[in-house]
Amino acid sequence: MFGQLYDRALTGERCWVRRDDGRVSRLPVHNWLGGRHADDRFDTTIVDMCEGPTLDLGCGPGRLVSYLVQRGVPALGVDLSATAVRLARSSGAPALHRDLFEPLPGTGRWQTVLLADGNVGLGGDPVRVLGRAAELLRSGGRCLVEFDSAAIGIDVGWVRLESASTIGPWFKWASVGIDSMPALAAEAGLAVAGIRHIGTRVVATLAAA
Ligand SMILES: C[S@@+](CC[C@H](N)C(=O)[O-])C[C@H]1O[C@@H](n2cnc3c(N)ncnc32)[C@H](O)[C@@H]1O
């Protein structure tokens, strides 16, 4: 989905995101890689919010999984990008190279599922992504979902990665505002358990029945 350019971005190529309406934004790959560019306040807070065995869907290079494991919390990342999974594993984060919609270990038994960094918008279908999270959780488990604090409603469109040398394929993406969260949660069979603002970012806790 993100394609080869995403893998190259993770290993240092400067990339940006173009939307089909012409908007261009930076690909915040440095935040995902952790280190001095990471949003430490966000990362520490969301890791504090995780309870019990935690599955990070679209874990990228695995910084959140790595923090969890360092704290002794059982955690697993899942990502479609082979480079992301390799980087995750090299930082001590267990990670599976797999589509999050394919069969995953522990289905129906995870205590926490993470959807950070806008991953609720993967594939442009937030109900499908939240429904998948609900399926993975145990009864009473919670999904921690970051919403886009700059978005209002659900902005579904086509985006692609670009660099100075390459243009990647278009893929569908949704930017999902927190105002849409109650309806999306209800559609996915999850109950709203709380909303937490972390600096300029916002995370909802959604509980499985
Ligand atoms: C916005 S980035 C989030 C980065 C990540 N949360 C981090 O902290 O580095 C989205 C990630 O989801 C992955 N991804 C996209 N579609 C996926 C899918 N269907 N299954 C698993 N991972 C997916 C991408 O490869 C990418 O690493």
Automatic annotation (TrEMBL):
Coiled-coil segments on the chain, per record: none
SUPFAM superfamilies on file: S-adenosyl-L-methionine-dependent methyltransferases
InterPro entries for the chain: Methyltransf_25 (IPR041698), SAM-dependent_MTases_sf (IPR029063)
Domain Methyltransferase as annotated: residue spans: 55-141
Annotated GO MF terms: methyltransferase activity
Domain of life per record: Bacteria
Keywords: Methyltransferase, Transferase
One of the GO BP terms on file: methylation
Alphabetized Pfam families for the sequence: Methyltransf_25 (PF13649)
Protein name: Methyltransferase domain protein
Source organism per UniProt: Mycolicibacterium obuense
